[in-house]
Amino acid sequence: MKGPFERPFEAGHHYEVTPDEIEALVQSLHSMELPVLTISTFPQYEGGDVYAFTLTAPDGAGAEGKHRLFISRPHAHEPAGTAACTELLKALLGLGDCAEGGEAWRRWVLDHFVLTLVPDANPGGSRRAPVKFRDGSEISNEQFFLWMFGESGEEPGARFPRVPAWDAREVTPPALVGITCEQIDSYLFVEPNRDTRSTFFRSFFELDKLHDYEVWLDLHQTEFIGSDRNAEMHLPTCQDELPETMATRHRELGEAIHASWRQAGGNPKEAPVVPYRTNEEQRAFLTKVWEPVSKTKVHLVTEVQNNHPRTPVPLQVHLQLAAILETMRWMVRRKA
Ligand SMILES: [Zn+2]
Prior knowledge:
The protein is α/β, with parallel strands linked by helices.
């Protein structure tokens, strides 16, 4: 079936990515009569809201027969996932550039899926981002890493340590708070996908009670330093400890997305990877929060290249969209 997103957007395409752009989109959607859309709001301590957009046809197949998919962008410095979510949202509502010719595809998705999109799980962090996108033409990775993780308050120019949570009363606060962090009370800061107290996890847990998602796809980006690749899927850090059926599902979907990236003009690694195999500390942080999820749901992470001229912004967004669309096809194939 012909759908949108067969080719990357043109250079210079306007994407809704920043918190202000997403707020404006929400305002315009609230003013429309859209029976296929539910918008859930999760306030952050810092002010501002995380929005979850749930799409499904109210008159489609019974909810129990539908595929249930949750898609989110956890890290505030990784804009291509946000752009992919907002473009998909508009396409499924028949709005914007992708509205024409996609009616059958739109109907098919809305009839067969309960799809939740969280384009930005940390708008507080996104507000601290000095630029909208990074394509490697202006900002060095060294500068970018200081924005991302924060700059040490003890040693100028050094990166603040990467920990799931830190308390401003217990450490020397960073000279610059990283875009990645979410402040959750007067003193406490967390990395959204490494601490279940984040608004990211709160939005998932609350909506999962309603929809019992089968698959959770997180859209991430990384720099691929020292590699000629520009995309890879991350399997759970506990992949080797998962029950065989769940390990197989994770691997199968990861491989399907790698194949779809090759077709979409990406240069993915040969196969999905288990991250942090040689970094016990980061692996333990991730396994602690993700193992309970990965045992019962397929949870996978895309990593699409950020901040490198080899992967311009339209390709970054295109690869994230390709991963989402392939996930939908895989969910349907698996049940067929
Ligand atoms: Zn990330």
